[in-house]
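Milestone 3.1: sequence recovery, worked example.
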């Protein structure tokens, strides 16, 4: 089942957690490649290179503004592939591809917006 990511204004953030199970410090880099349904690359960006000590767990982050997205909505399920890769000491060690859709939400003027459209909400507490 696809994961739905809610977009906010500003950069999009992707996060992964890693643990160094070796006996040596490791230089780790995190890269994200966003492609559309046709395989066209929309954006490629990386997080900071970090050193992970033996036995240490760190959260890696990569963030970048992404524009021109087709938003996921009822009746229009546009999906993207988000490929995240983890490099250790310059060598790609793990790659994961996740299908995802994007939405834009806003709360302003007492209304709820989804993908630039006002949502009618009934019977909420």
């Amino acid at each position: 089942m696809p994961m739905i990511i809610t977009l906010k204004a500003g950069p999009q953030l992707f996060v992964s957690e890693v643990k160094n199970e070796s006996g040596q410090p490791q230089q780790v880099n995190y890269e994200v490649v966003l492609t559309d349904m046709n395989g066209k690359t929309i954006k490629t960006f990386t997080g900071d290179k970090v050193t992970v000590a033996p036995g240490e767990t760190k959260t890696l982050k990569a963030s970048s503004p992404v524009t021109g997205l087709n938003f996921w909505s009822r009746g229009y399920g546009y999906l993207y592939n988000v490929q995240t890769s983890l490099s250790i000491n310059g060598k790609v060690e793990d790659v994961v591809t996740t299908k995802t859709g994007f939405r834009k939400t806003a709360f302003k003027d007492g209304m709820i917006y989804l993908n630039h459209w006002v949502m009618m909400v009934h019977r909420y507490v």
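The beta strands are 3-7, 12-19, 26-35, 41-46, 50-52, 57-64, 80-88, 91-108, 111-114, 117-119. The chain has one domain: 3-119.
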